[in-house]
From TrEMBL:
ATP-binding recorded as keyword: no
Protein's name in the database: GNAT family N-acetyltransferase
PROSITE patterns: GNAT
Keyword Ribosomal protein carried by entry: no
Lineage: Bacteria, Bacillati, Actinomycetota, Actinomycetes, Kitasatosporales
Highest taxon in the source lineage: Bacteria
Ranges where the N-acetyltransferase domain occurs: 7-171
Keywords: Acyltransferase, Transferase
Amino acid sequence: MPGTAEVQVRPGVEEDLKPLTDLYNHYVRETPITFDTEPFTPQERRPWLLSHPEDGPHRLRVATDADSQEILGYATSSPYRAKPAYATSVETTVYVAPGAGGRGIGSLLYTSLFAALAGEDLHRAYAGIAQPNAASARLHARFGFRHVGTYREVGRKFGRYWDVAWYEKPL
């Protein structure tokens, strides 16, 4: 993939907490991509980080610049829902740092994430994409996700309602 040779993907670690929080807060403050409406402190995001260990079905993969080690993005698999019967389903997501889009980082992250999940007892992955977001829809389609429905005006942020399209992928 052009433009990706200088990018490394690895599991997220405790030292990533501040830059990961900063990256996520950009999306909280500036976009409807997440429905969180208030920025987080690193300490508030720590339980999220710790809920994504290096093994198991709930992972955090981080893309960094090979030279500077700057975080360029991250991908996660998280519990789909809390009830036990959902344990073989995960919700996946990708966030790419502002200015790092179009370099294949999302694809590198998902390639790494799905490779890490290959040995886990998982049946389906789900992804919710706030609309419109053509780049995310294309990324998910490349990884075998298919659109299964759209929740209309399900979230309110920035004084308006947003739709969320839902995608699923067999694992």
